[in-house]
């Protein structure tokens, strides 16, 4: 498999706990590209943690900051491997931005796998309270929201290495 740099950005989308950041880092390493995490970019721009932005300014402010950060990152010289937050796909404008010249990869995982993964990180503001209930509710609310991707990979049974290989194979086939 070639480790040729892609011609365009690769954007990873998917629900919380599907492995976007981990896969992004490994894919970037394989391809010799820079990785970028939109959540980390929001924290840098706002000077506050995600939890603190939600608590002090609310989700609406967070979503506006997310759109601004995403737009800036997508305009950067690349190619970049970009990991987005799970809700970045909700605004139609964000989806359009992602589809303008990037290869969009959706990562999915079974709900129970998601619950196991996110339970290790208690800081996600949208999962406060009963995590299981919140995950099932949000998955229902967001049904179909990740379907606009060029490629979808169910990561439930796969190692990070296998996910990365599948993305590379699809990139080769699509001449990304
Ligand atoms: C969110 C996902 C989080 C983060 C924020 C909101 C969401 O990112 O952007 O807590 O709406 O799904 P991860 O998907 O990286 O956890």
Q: What would you say this structure looks like, in words?
A:
With 176 residues, the chain is an alpha/beta fold. The chain has one domain (9-36, 79-174): P-loop containing nucleotide triphosphate hydrolases (Rossmann fold). Helices cover 50% and strands 14% of the residues. The protein is built from seven helices and five strands, in the order βαβααβαβααβα. The chain has helices at 20-31, 38-46, 50-75, 92-99, 111-118, 131-141, 160-173, and strands at 9-14, 34-37, 80-83, 102-108, 151-154. The chain has a five-stranded parallel β-sheet with strand order 2-3-1-4-5. It starts with 8 loop residues before the first strand and ends with a helix. The mean pLDDT is 96. Residues 16, 20, 39, 50, 85-87, 124-126 line the site of shikimate-3-phosphate. Shikimate-3-phosphate binds at residues 16, 20, 39, 50, 85-87, 124-126.
Give the helices and strands as they follow along the chain.
EHEHHEHEHHEH
Low-confidence stretches: none
Largest sheet: 5 strands, parallel
CATH overall fold name: Rossmann fold
What is the total tally of β strands?
5
- The oligomeric state of the chains shown is single chain
Strand percent estimate:
5-15%
Question: Into how many domains do the coordinates divide?
Answer: 1
Q: How does CATH name the architecture?
A: 3-Layer(aba) Sandwich
